[in-house]
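Methods — Computational structure assignment.
A single polypeptide chain was analysed. Its primary sequence is given first, followed by the predicted tertiary structure written as structure tokens.
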Amino acid sequence: MQRTLDEIEMKLLCYVWNSQLIILKLTQMGKRDKMRKHGIILSVYSIIVALYIALSIILTTDRDTVFWIGFAMVLFAVGLAAVITVVTNRKRSSAFPLEISMVAFSAIYVAVVVAINILFGFIFNTAVNIFISIHLMCMALYAIITVLMFATKNLVIKQTNQVNGKICEMQILIYEFEKIKTKLIDMQLESKKKALPLIDSLLDELRFSDFGLTVDVSDIDTRLRSMAEMLSAEVDNLVLIKSDDITSMEAIINDIKKVVKDRNMQIRLMSSSI
């Protein structure tokens, strides 16, 4: 029995160690990929700036105040778009679709700034104060939407982390009961035949129970972990004394099932009231 558990623990340790090595290698590769990606992004925006400067010099002869204001606004928009693109691509997150939207929106802002320069700076020859006002309004709209996108992104990441944490907690709890199941190998044949269906039934209820993603049931989860320790101790005792009487074990399992049902009921009630 102890040998089986030791083998399981050793396999888990080997798995964790190998996983850490793989993660380290992937992290190093990921850093190189990020640097390459950021270099491409900055290169693209640098080409856009260079192209705009070249066209501005070639196509314009009368470089008045409106021209230089528009010129500065393009440089500002491109620089801001490049910064936001790099920042949103630093780390792949659960809010990736929103990050792509932020990058696309920044590119649209650059296009809008260029369009304003062409329409109101060259075609309609707008007054300086009106030209500046148009740019400021577009900048304010861009800033508001970008801030809202960043706030939404952080909220999505926070909620996703909470969900993953809840799922991980339940998986750890299930793993505790699966470890108890491995102990049944050393039980007497008759008691093992009776105990296996009970453990399997309990594991099924745990696997299909609610995770409690929006409800705090940490107290109940702590109680379940404590009951798992009680069940583990009872199984160890049955193995030690080589007993076929699993009455006490069955009672503990039934108590655990009741707690699981109460937990699911509490989650449903509290979720419906949110």
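Note: Residues 187-272 form one domain.
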